[in-house]
Amino acid sequence: MAPAGIASDALDRPHFIGIGGAGMSGVAKVLAMRGARVSGSDSKDSPIVGALRELGATVHLGHAADHLAPDITSVVVSSAIRADNLELVTARERGIPVVHRSDALAALMDGSRPIAVAGTHGKTTTTSMLAVSLRTLGLDPSYVIGGDLDAPGSSARHGDGEIFVAEADESDRSFHKYAPEVAIVLNVELDHHANYASMDEIYESFQTFVGRIRPGGALVISADHPGARELTARVTGGEGPRVLTYGEDAGADVRVLAIEPHGLTSEVTVRLAESLGGAEITFTVSVPGRHYALNAVAALTAGAALGVPARDLAPALASYTGVKRRLQLKGTAAGVQVIDSYAHHPTEIAADLEAIRGGAGEGRVLVVFQPHLFSRTQELGTEMGQALALADASVVLDIYPAREDPVPGVTSALVIDAAARHGADVTAEHDRSAVPELIAGMAKPGDLVLTMGAGDVTDLGPEILARLQSPES
């Protein structure tokens, strides 16, 4: 059964514009695994595009009207696709149904027991933790994640089990399309300034999402995060869903008693409320940092809400060893570890730097940071710079624009100046190609280098490693 507004056969032969994107590729992959004849286009070739082709998808490079085959049943788009995209314009001219990615994902979840993971930060990690641990238990979930677990194309899978785990994106309000049995809200902060003007708008959006939880379902939400507590107060009472809280707060339904770091792993002890069995459980989280430990507790709570025994799920969570771009070790050269981080919001930057600090030992933490979006930098540039002061030294690149046009007066100088005001050792670098040489001159054995941001800064990791390995180093 398709969601309202989508014909039942619309996803039989879908064409995805921007099929290689993190969110789009996951939906395309699950559809291909379910037997749909998938086609799509993307601006460049990539390992993700290659993985889709291996599943039988037809993927064109570049955008052209003739990429839309005569028999396609829909064109799938995300909010990142501009209205003047040639393939989108052609689809509208030909009367081909245009389906938003979120509607396609909602259709995929229909008939399953969905867990939708929302929040300003931590969605990809928490969704991944659930997907991996449920697979470890043999429950064979379907999932769509905003990042690859271990290989290109591993962001999504069609499973034979009844559970469907999906990342629920609040940035464009598309998470209003889902009707989960269990919804997770990790945190609530102001972000996506092009779409939200205030915290009140953010709260209203999350309230709509919570209102979509199926009858008899549950909301799993942080007991510690101020924004999450405010949201809990707004949705508690009446005929809303069952609310299960997690965190270090004494009143949490799944209370964190201890988080003990051990290098790049943590040992977590929790106590479950009597309604969840009343047990005290200790388990390992195989990635560093308190925020990742708390994400694992959110996953544990969601599993318990769905009826998966916490004593079984807790040890299975240790099988999650990371996702690409979430403190992913890219390699080591000349005694220097190079790690990639997707962090682009000040809270994420600070959390990842604190996590890495615990694993750095006597070494320094060096950051190559690329601000993401003009709108975000305009609103949060000062806070970004303040967070970078947690590093021993930072190199800041120009803003990665993604889908946005430049904003007069908004440059990475907003971040650099704020970092300097907070005592940071910060360097501006406008030439990306100069970064490997610059870092090679700064890094010493034992140091950790983080490439950080949501743009193409990730591509610098291998280049930095290559430069560190070269004789000139």
From TrEMBL:
Keywords: ATP-binding, Cell cycle, Cell division, Cell shape, Cell wall biogenesis/degradation, Cytoplasm, Ligase, Nucleotide-binding, Peptidoglycan synthesis. It catalyses: UDP-N-acetyl-alpha-D-muramate + L-alanine + ATP = UDP-N-acetyl-alpha-D-muramoyl-L-alanine + ADP + phosphate + H(+). ATP binds at G119, T120, H121, G122, K123, T124, T125. Residues 325-455 form the Mur ligase C-terminal domain. InterPro entries: Mur-like_cat_sf, Mur_ligase_C, Mur_ligase_C_dom_sf, Mur_ligase_cen, Mur_ligase_N, MurCDEF_pg_biosynth, UDP-N-AcMur_Ala_ligase_MurC. Gene3D superfamilies: Mur ligase, C-terminal domain, Mur-like, catalytic domain, NAD(P)-binding Rossmann-like Domain. Pathway: Cell wall biogenesis; peptidoglycan biosynthesis. Residues 117-302 form the Mur ligase central domain. Residues 15-111 form the Mur ligase N-terminal catalytic domain. Pfam families: Mur_ligase (PF01225), Mur_ligase_C (PF02875), Mur_ligase_M (PF08245). It is found in: Cytoplasm. GO terms for molecular function: ligase activity. Its EC number is 6.3.2.8. Belongs to the MurCDEF family. Cell wall formation. This is UDP-N-acetylmuramate--L-alanine ligase. The gene is murC.
